[in-house]
């Protein structure tokens, strides 16, 4: 990844900035345990050299994990060219032949109908204004009998309205889109409307935001974060509100107010 100029860094979105400083290397919600649970529901072993799509793949850590574990052909899509560049670079280092990446918006996937045996996405379906539209897009590109699985943030019904609104506002501001944190019941309704069969919805309240960094990586990320916060006014402007909110959020996390849910279904 080439070194970016200060103005370019100031223009990065939150996830791109995280990718740039080396912080986008493990699943956003549920940690690797959540990813394993999601993959298990897809039952990839039962498919013969399946074609798999990962939505919102970021720098491709989950894509590479799947590509290395299964005899499959996998495509990761994301809306950030910078994150995809990192994804390609990291995958080349591993010499993986069954993996590719493509720029795409999950709301309008550049694939024909009935292309994939499995489609999954972690921490992406809740980040779009209309999750149902995205689920329909997953369904369109899946072959008949193909499997879908998604993993997303969930709030408990008991979460205070004030915190719900603040979470939505901060997340929408940071991500530059309309983000709405939903309860289990709200998600259930969306999944039922999606028209997938054999629906399963599971919820979990552990390992939320569990990023797994080595001590060295953690030190490097912290130094880079502090450096850019000090030298780049635009980075400060963008990151200080969510960093402030993060403290409140961590407190709410400890109270068990958030969790993640995994949805699985069949076309
Ligand atoms: C919260 S990150 C999740 C990354 C990874 N799936 C994980 O679980 O760690 C969301 C990712 O989705 C991408 N993204 C956001 N909106 C998108 C869209 N409409 N289409 C495709 N990708 C999108 C972002 O660029 C980012 O890489």
Report the CATH architecture: 3-Layer(aba) Sandwich
Beta-strand level of the residues, as a percent range? 15-25%
* Number of structural units classed as domains: 1
CATH class: Alpha Beta
CATH superfamily heading: Vaccinia Virus protein VP39
Side-by-side strand order of the widest sheet: 3-2-1-4-5-7-6
Q: Give the terminus-to-terminus CA distance.
A: 38 Å
In CATH, the topology is named: Rossmann fold
Could you give a quick summary of the protein structure above?
This protein has helices at 6-11, 14-20, 31-42, 61-69, 81-93, 131-141, 161-175, 184-193, 215-231, 233-254, and strands spanning 51-55, 73-78, 99-103, 116-122, 142-155, 197-204, 258-266. By secondary structure, the protein is α/β, with parallel strands linked by helices. It has one domain (6-266): Rossmann fold (3-Layer(aba) Sandwich).
Descriptive notes:
- By secondary structure, the protein is an alpha/beta fold.
- About 45% of the residues lie in helices and about 20% in strands.
- It contains 10 helices and 7 strands.
- Helix 7 (about 160-175) packs antiparallel against helix 10 and helix 9 (about 215-230) crosses helix 10 (about 235-255).
- The model has no long low-confidence stretch (mean pLDDT about 95).
- Bound molecules: S-adenosylmethionine.
- S-adenosylmethionine binds next to strand 2.
- S-adenosylmethionine binds near residues 15, 27, 56, 78 and 106.
């Amino acid at each position: 990844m080439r070194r970016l100029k200060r103005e370019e860094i100031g223009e990065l979105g939150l996830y791109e900035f995280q990718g740039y400083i080396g912080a986008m290397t493990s699943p956003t919600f549920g940690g690797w345990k959540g990813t394993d649970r999601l993959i298990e529901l897809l039952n990839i072993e039962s498919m013969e050299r399946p074609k798999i799509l990962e939505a919102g793949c970021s720098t491709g850590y989950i894509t590479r994990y799947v590509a290395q574990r299964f005899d499959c052909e996998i495509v990761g899509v994301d809306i950030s060219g910078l994150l995809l560049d990192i994804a390609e670079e990291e995958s080349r280092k591993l010499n993986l032949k069954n993996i590719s990446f493509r720029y795409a918006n999950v709301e309008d996937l550049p694939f024909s109908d009935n292309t994939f045996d499995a489609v999954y996405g972690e921490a992406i379906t809740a980040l779009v204004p209309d999750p149902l539209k995205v689920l329909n897009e997953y369904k369109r590109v899946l072959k008949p009998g193909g499997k879908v699985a998604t993993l997303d943030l969930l709030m408990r019904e008991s979460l205070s309205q004030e915190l719900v609104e603040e979470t939505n506002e901060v997340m929408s501001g940071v991500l530059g889109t309309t983000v709405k944190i939903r309860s289990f019941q709200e998600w259930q309704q969306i999944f039922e409307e999606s028209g997938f069969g054999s629906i399963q919805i599971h919820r979990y309240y552990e390992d939320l935001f569990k990023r797994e960094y080595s001590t060295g990586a953690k030190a490097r990320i912290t130094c880079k974060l502090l450096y850019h916060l000090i030298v780049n006014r635009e980075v400060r402007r963008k990151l200080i509100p969510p960093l402030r909110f993060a403290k409140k959020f961590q407190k709410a996390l400890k109270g068990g107010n958030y969790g993640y849910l995994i949805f699985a279904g069949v076309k």
